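Let's do one together. I've listed all components of the complex below, 632 residues spread over two lines.
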Amino acid sequence: MHARIRSLALAALALSAVTTTACKKKPVLAPPPAPVVKPFNQDSANAAEAAKRAAAEAAAKAAADKAAAEAAARYAAAVAAAKASFATPVYFDYDKAEIRDDQKAALEAKLPIFQANADMRIRIAGNTDNRGSDEYNMVLGQKRAAEVKRYLVARGIDAGRIDVVSFGEERPAVAADTEDAWGKNRRDEFEIIAGANPFKLPGK
Amino acid sequence: MISRAVRAFGVLCLCPFVAVAQDTIPQGVRVGLTYDPSSRPGVFITAVGGPAGDSVRAILARDLDFGDRLTVISAEAGPPPTGAINYALYAKLTASAIVQASVTPQGSLHVAVHDVAGKRVLNVGDFAFGTAATYSSAWRMAVHRASDEVERWVTSTRGIAATRVLYVRDQRLYIVDSDGANLTPVGVGGTALSPAWHPTGRYVAYTQMADDGTHIVVRDIISGQGRRVPDLGGSNVTPAFSPDGSTLVYSAGDDGTDLYAVSPFGSEAPRRVTVGHGSPSSSPTFSPDGRKIAFTSGRLGHPEVYITDADGTNAELLTEKAAVEQPYRTDPDWSPDGRNVAFTSQEGPNLQVMMINVRDRKVRQLTGDARNENPSWAPDARHIVFTSTRSGAKQLWVLDTESGRTRQLTRGAGVARQAAWSPRMEQP
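Okay, and this is what the predicted structure of the assembly comes out as:
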């Protein structure tokens, strides 16, 4: 198609060159030229048709691409939201490892993600605030991670999919000595360590 | 020979001090001045001859002062004494003993201690510098060893100057001499916590923290070689060596934590010691005879200190649940004389350092100013090093549990904590 357009353009250039030279030669009156009957050019018709078709195709492709990109973005957002939901920490009371009632919804929300990603393995990291003994906090954090693992196993998750560790008070979420910071630091964190790439959304 | 000379001195001495029974002194070998912790006999250190003599004198004076058993008489040293000692002169300075020292051309510190009342030499010793460069760490340690012997000659109890403190600053390990000098990083990558000394002073064990959990590492501090001991995966924290150095006990577990024992240099699997039924346990510390372990356990729902036989049987609560709002007692450290366990207790808004007598369970609160925690006994079973916020950020402080005198051991930026006082450093 491109080759045809190029030869058409060359033909047009040649024609205009001939006309110009003719005018310069003789300023003699001549009978008006017979009206040029432009012959029907099958090539240019084809070219026009092709251009129209190409534009339509491009538009359709752009629309499809846009839709695909939007779908991908929606999916990515859904994955990000699901991952964020999975990573939502579970918080604890001071010197306690028992799961608070108000934290159970956050744990329940993780179950469909385990189910959708059957090979997924995770690590639960128990953490504490910095008020007690830093050595005892290491084992308190471990107990917090173990309690949440126990909860998930009781809800049907294979124990072999869950590692537990403790960072005690060594990795605070908020490095400050306030009630608010302490509350945010007494937490279990959830990290996907294997088997979730690609990540599957629940129900898909 | 020493004890004969010293017994003679004890008879000659007209000291007004009251005899105090101390379990650390074997029967029949009471030496030197009859020692009373409430009165510190005066000691005069004469000018020290030989290379770096002024520095030697300053280190001896500071060591004896930090020992809290002697009063170092601050007076101009004058020239190094030659010939006969004028005992009457030193008696006027209220000196009970004179320390006369010189750095010999052979590269040792020669020390003589005189009994002023007896007008005689009490004891003499040589402390080799070996190949240590003047002012180097090993050179200072030789002077510290001399200080510790001087303290033993005069008070019958060896000093603790020739020791070091291992601790954590900003999640890295450091070692500092007992007098605060010679701060040295222990070359460990990553986060290191809860360090402990092997009884030889050659190895340390600690908790190494990584993203996938915590492990126990034993490191040779001379060669720098480190080795991860067999563990259970996941969480493995708070190691402690048995007094004979053959066993390492630490806290590990998947559901809750128990104490486990391994050979620090072997490869056999850890064997479980405690049975906490899913509760958290940590911070083991052996009795000096190696037969018992004190540790922290949350089996009652809050941490308290327990004692168990080293095989895990006969676990019993040591720190009785007191009638306070927040029962919370942790981080025991068994005193080297076996009589007491120091620990951390929640008292009002802060943690405080306490000690409990193992036999009669009498408790003494040792601190009250700001937050104080994580005590570790010196080899003399009298001083402790602990973490305190009394000067702002956490730093290490040393407390004499007899007199209540405290001094700051660490300074500088960052947070210093989790101190472990070394055994006496016998090797240069």
